[in-house]
């Protein structure tokens, strides 16, 4: 199977492990050293995906939230087994498995599967971005909104902007836009890719939080950088937009 087929296979496996546990709320929860929660489902999903990748792409390297890095290849799969673990443990259906594939710093594909929402998104540089919902696939693209006053902004944290020293700047941005919603986590960025939201921003992120999102936003015609304008998922935070609004958003957050 090709890389995209493999990514769908990985997402199917992740969904089959996470969704029954989520519906039953049957799992154990512990605390990692960074004081964030982790469940046995997070670890089971990442372990299963790692086994599949090793079997199908033995020469590729891996980086995951729960088990770290393995391999030396520039071709690297980057996995967040459950993005939105806090939602997962509280019964909130906004969680997803994130799967990215990169060649060095170049994104090759992104896959985001949110089984409790009944949605899956994917994107590749040459193939466009897509949403699967209720069994139907459709190509997606970012919005054409070009003024902050007409824009919808999604976010997840105010305290993080304070810790970054940009809380006032972020609030200034929220004052400029038409609509503000706290969708949070992966969903904010997928809504940008769908054209339902125009800007998404978060102050504190890791590579595994962003790697799968970037190819999808970009394939949908959007832009993904950190708050200082550096492209890609390699900074400590993120701003994604339809492109038309990106510079204005960065200037407000500066």
From TrEMBL:
It catalyses: L-histidinol phosphate + H2O = L-histidinol + phosphate. Transmembrane segments: none annotated. One of its GO terms (biological process) is signal transduction. Mg(2+) binds at residues 65, 80, 82-83, 209. InterPro entries: His_9_proposed, Inositol_monoP_metal-BS, Inositol_monophosphatase-like. The keyword Magnesium applies. Its EC number is 3.1.3.15. Pathway: Amino-acid biosynthesis; L-histidine biosynthesis; L-histidine from 5-phospho-alpha-D-ribose 1-diphosphate: step 8/9. The keyword rRNA-binding does not apply. Its cofactor is Mg(2+). Keywords: Amino-acid biosynthesis, Histidine biosynthesis, Hydrolase, Magnesium, Metal-binding. Pfam families: Inositol_P (PF00459). One of its GO terms (molecular function) is inositol monophosphate 1-phosphatase activity. Belongs to the inositol monophosphatase superfamily. Catalyzes the dephosphorylation of histidinol-phosphate to histidinol, the direct precursor of histidine. This is Histidinol-phosphatase.
């Amino acid at each position: 199977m090709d890389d995209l087929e493999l990514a769908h296979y990985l997402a199917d496996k992740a969904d089959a492990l996470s969704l029954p546990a989520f519906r039953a709320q049957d799992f154990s929860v512990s605390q990692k050293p960074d004081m964030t929660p982790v469940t046995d489902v997070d670890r089971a999903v990442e372990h299963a995906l790692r086994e599949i990748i090793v079997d199908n792409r033995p020469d590729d390297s891996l980086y995951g939230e729960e088990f770290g890095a393995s391999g030396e290849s520039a071709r690297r799969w980057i996995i967040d087994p459950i993005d939105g673990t806090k939602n997962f443990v509280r019964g909130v259906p906004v969680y997803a498995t994130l799967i990215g594939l990169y060649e060095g710093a170049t994104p090759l594909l992104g896959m985001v599967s949110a089984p409790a929402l009944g949605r899956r998104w994917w994107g590749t540089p040459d193939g466009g971005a897509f949403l699967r919902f209720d069994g139907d696939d459709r190509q997606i693209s970012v919005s054409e909104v070009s003024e902050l006053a007409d824009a919808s902004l999604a976010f997840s944290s105010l305290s993080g902007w304070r810790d970054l020293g940009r809380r006032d700047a972020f609030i200034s941005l929220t004052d400029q836009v038409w609509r503000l919603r706290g969708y949070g986590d992966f969903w904010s960025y997928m809504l940008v890719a769908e054209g339902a939201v125009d800007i998404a921003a978060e102050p504190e992120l890791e590579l595994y939080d962003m790697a799968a999102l970037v190819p999808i936003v970009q394939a949908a015609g959007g832009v993904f950088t950190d708050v200082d304008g550096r492209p890609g998922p390699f900074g400590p935070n993120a701003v994604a937009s339809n492109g038309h609004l990106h510079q204005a958003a960065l200037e407000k957050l500066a």
